[in-house]
Amino acid sequence: MNYQSFIARRYLRSGRAFLSVSTWITMVGVTLGVAVVCFVMSMHNGFEAEIRARLLGTTTHVSIFPLYGNLIEDYQQLVQQLESMDGVVAAAPFIYYKAAIQSASAGDGIVLRGVDLEAEKRVSNLADDIKVGQCSFEPLVLEGDTTPGMILGSGLAEGLGVYISEPVWLYSIRGEDLHKRTRPRVAKFYVSGILETGMYEFDVQMAYISLDDAQKLFQTGRAVTAAHLKLVDIYQADAMAPVIDSLLGYRYDVVPWNVLHKNLFSWIAIEKKILFLGFLLIVVVAAFSIISTLVMLTMEKRSDIGILKTIGLTPSSVRRIFVYNGLTIAVVGVLAGWGLALLAAWLQNSYQIVSLPPDIYFISYLPIEIRLLDFALTGGAAVAICYLASLYPATQAARLSVIDVLRQ
What we know:
There is one protein chain. The protein is of the alpha+beta class. Helices cover 54% and strands 19% of the residues. The protein has two domains: 3-55 and 264-407, no CATH class; 72-224, no CATH class.
């Protein structure tokens, strides 16, 4: 322990009543600032992780599209190639087009996906998202007709006013010559399951049918429009994309999840930075309190500074004493802020104190995900701000003239 830090601690503990209260208020300000920044960042991390999990449960980690909008004819071979790669869990083909849907009481435009159900279960959360009914396309005899099954999003089913085992009709004009007087192809289905992904955009417009039925409805023959795959590590999607592209001979457009949803995740990243800078202003306000506290401490300890300089203390040593004071306030405030943020995060995850209306948001409460890097950056920024704030009063204390002090 050097003598500057020893004197700095004595100064913090031996101030007058007002100065001691000011010191504690400053520490509380730093604590609250650090706690708020860490908690908000953790809350944002949880929200981002929840969105990512729900998106990737539907769109998977890497998507393979044909170049120039063509179809994939040899999709069985493509799936086998993809599944033979290291780091790939499973792959599945699908057909993805827009269509019109009609129930007995309402109609709407939807995004229809034709899937190989067994393969789809291995790459997405389709089976886990079923809330009512079954994850099945097995035909059912309905009104004397053998009718295949269809899975609807919960919002879409509600809008159409349909429930399990009720009939719906799909309409498609893909592949028809629009210059002729063509009529849309019609296919009848029954609702075999209702899914809820938690993403409003998916639940209100997404529907699934079997791959064979989609090929007939959209007249794609034995071809599909795309394939997607699941990786062992989702964060390897960027690195895996060029490897997959090379393996497939650069004949496809290989798109990782973060590129497919680039707009959404870029917005989330920008919002996180803005939140960090905005809430860091609380620490800046607390730093002004450090300036005032150290200025008052300098005024109180003028005679002590004069005596210390008389016995040989250099201006740099005096400056260091007051800088230590500022850093002590910062470190105590950061540690207390971390503890307060961790406590608030535990309470929120355990008891869901801050809840959200599930009919508006796709989650019922604000999840918290703690990342050590965010805590380290917040703590480092707080200490740096407090250090800069302590330089001015420390420099003023170092400039005190021994003669002026002794004259008083």
